[in-house]
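During the no-cost extension, the postdoctoral fellow (Dr. R.K.) reprocessed legacy sequence entries with the updated structure-token encoder. One reprocessed record is reproduced below for audit purposes.
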Amino acid sequence: IIALLGASGAGKSVLLKNLVGLMEPDEGKVTIRDINVHRASSAKLSELRNTLGLLFQSGALFDSMSVYENLAFPLREKSSLGLEAIEERINDRLEKVDMLEAREKLPAELSGGMQKRVALARTLIRNPEIIFFDEPTTGLHSDDVKRLLDVIDNIVSKGATVVIIEHNLDVIKVADHIIDLGPEGGEEGGKILVEGTPEKVARSRKSHTGRYLKDVLKG
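Re-encoded structure tokens follow.
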């Protein structure tokens, strides 16, 4: 689990959009599994994206579709699964995020935390190997944050790689590696100040979040 930390405006979400190919960098390149994300053919990029998952900050659910239909959509579009297999997969993912009872509801009938959990279930529906989270704890209560982090921890235990873009330092409780970005403006803006284990970043004098990390690590 890699946590990319930094203040608002540090460039975290822009970097994430560059990583998945939604934005093109002004310079440099993004390489995932030896594939240049911004120079690959459409076929190669599509092949790569089939192994990636992305949880948008807003959840980005289709508001005119039920929870069930939101999860079924990527399977119908991108897999050859039959109706029974789709049903089984959807129920399994909703159960993982404790949202099985909401499968026939519309997003507007759910709280912000519940919508985020449904969006997470949809992100996991095709078994991605690398999953990007754009500020997943935004707007969530502490109980929902804990539940979300527990699910993320479980995902990684099954072999996935997770990249979390965050400002909430609670994420370091599950992070293996931290990248600390400099604040907006000035020479440090958008640059990596320090990276490494949570303990290393907490000790670094360069880190803007180090003193808070120490408190979190102490519990």
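DSSP finds eight helices and eight strands in the chain. The helical segments are 12-19, 42-49, 67-78, 83-96, 112-124, 142-157, 198-203, 210-218. The remaining legacy entries will be reprocessed before the final report is submitted.
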